[in-house]
Amino acid sequence: MLRRLLAASLCAAALLAGSLPHPAAAQAEKTLNVYNWSDYIDPDAVAKFEQESGIKIRYDVFDSLETLEGKLSAGRSGYDIVVPTSEPTFARLAKAGALLPLDRGKIPNWGNQDPALLKQVESSDPGNRFGAIYLYGTIGLAIRPDRVRALAPDAPLDSLDLLMKPENARRLAGCGIAVMDSAIDVLPTVLKWAGRNPNSSDTADLRVAEEALLAIRPHVRAITASSSILDALANGEYCVALTYSGDAIQAQARAREAKRGVEIGYVQPREGAQLWFDMLAIPADAPNPEGAHAFINFLLRPEVMAGITNQVRYPNAVTAATPMVQEDVRNDPNIYPTPEMLARTFTVQALPASAARAYGRSWNRFKAGR
Ligand code: N2P
């Protein structure tokens, strides 16, 4: 009798198990593995998505494209959402088949994105098949205007000369100069400043950029992660730092809150600033593509995007979010660039592999100082 009962219940359990998803799969559907830039989301957005969807977010951060590429190059990263910059990383991943084509049927908020900006990123992703626009910005200088004026009164406050002319760098060295540790995101800006093609694969051009960097190297205190530059800037540790626009403005906001007399400004170099777009994308082997689509759709809600921009000080591409963004953020031309400022930006494209390696070697020589 007991044996028969046991057999029956085992049978029922087996039947039940057959009708339910595999336990590992069910587990995967309950978590979403997100790999995003540091200091790049509103914590409330993460909490709200978790609460609404019942999906738990496991959130990891990176602070350079080199780190992101290193993590993704081998495949099987385990991530469901990654946020590569349109050029070069996102374009490269899309071309290599490393990303899942987005199913727009699962992203009803897709149409919230500004069509003009979507068109602009189509050069990296024809048909916008693999990515939604998360945030965008420029690369330039975070500065402490009062200190710079005191130490180098004749130096221009709107130009990369502030960093790249050795006589300026020498005078500002004691006050702290930092450059973010990314060949991919720094060398185009230096090439542009030197009057070269910012997207050059030409060894002679790269040589010019490298020589210019080596000339200021003795005056540079730190070539380090963009995330640690943000923290140090907010504490007043640097007078000039080459970094991402919104990071400078986040540091400005934090320094103001701390009320210790540290004033920080952002300079979009007049020589031309690199404009970039960070894309929400799903790795081809993502464990939870369903959840990833739901998360992208959630982020494209105007009120969610407005909250993110308010928090991280980068503009987004959701048109209806703009009126919900705080006035001081919305009206800051260093966050939402004016048409004139946009006209003075440039974009890059992925380099051939051999040129990308040469950039890496130049960068290592800059870091080593020889
Ligand atoms: C966030 C930096 C993200 C901008 N800290 C780089 N695309």
TrEMBL record:
<feature type="signal peptide">
    <location>
        <begin position="1"/>
        <end position="24"/>
    </location>
</feature>
<keyword id="KW-0813">Transport</keyword>
<dbReference type="InterPro" id="IPR001188">
    <property type="entry name" value="Sperm_putr-bd"/>
</dbReference>
<keyword id="KW-0732">Signal</keyword>
<dbReference type="Pfam" id="PF13416">
    <property type="entry name" value="SBP_bac_8"/>
</dbReference>
<dbReference type="GO" id="GO:0019808">
    <property type="term" value="F:polyamine binding"/>
</dbReference>
<dbReference type="GO" id="GO:0042597">
    <property type="term" value="C:periplasmic space"/>
</dbReference>
<dbReference type="GO" id="GO:0015846">
    <property type="term" value="P:polyamine transport"/>
</dbReference>
<protein>
    <recommendedName>
        <fullName>Putrescine-binding periplasmic protein</fullName>
    </recommendedName>
</protein>
<dbReference type="InterPro" id="IPR006059">
    <property type="entry name" value="SBP"/>
</dbReference>
<comment type="function">
    <text>Required for the activity of the bacterial periplasmic transport system of putrescine.</text>
</comment>
<keyword id="KW-0574">Periplasm</keyword>
<comment type="similarity">
    <text>Belongs to the bacterial solute-binding protein PotD/PotF family.</text>
</comment>
